[in-house]
Give the backbone structure.
Amino acid sequence: MGYHEHQQRARVEGSEPIRCGILTLSDTRTFETDTSGAVILAALTQAGHDVVRYEVVRDEPAQIVELVRALVSEGCKLIITNGGTGIARRDSTIEAIDSLLEKRLPGFGELFRMISYDDIGPGAMLSRAIAGTYLGALLFCLPGSTGAVRLALEKLIMPELSHLVWETVRQ
């Protein structure tokens, strides 16, 4: 079966709401100031998905791993993080998530940086955005920038979400 047939079948078979988790990883943001998490929440709920948990927590690797494991045990099939993907000393999201990933989707990070380049220029190379799977759940790690979050959601994640989830659960 080719890509388009997979995508069509996923839309038909995978039309149920997806259980989702959102993690904003920041040492400075709060729920009141977290515009990126709010954008993710709005996109997922407007698409009819079920956000079971939305947390704003410090960029601490052990806590990140613990939260991702908890979300997966709660039945989340999609976890989107934002923040902690840069190269600053405190940016540790990628190291924490990468330790969990069973299958990586290198194309996500590559495409994200490519379309970000059109938006912000060479600064796109500073993003270490990644995606992959962990125990049947999809994980996307996005930068904390609200513009970057919107870009990833609109251009990459939302158009392919039902297909991605269908691929991870159909085995």
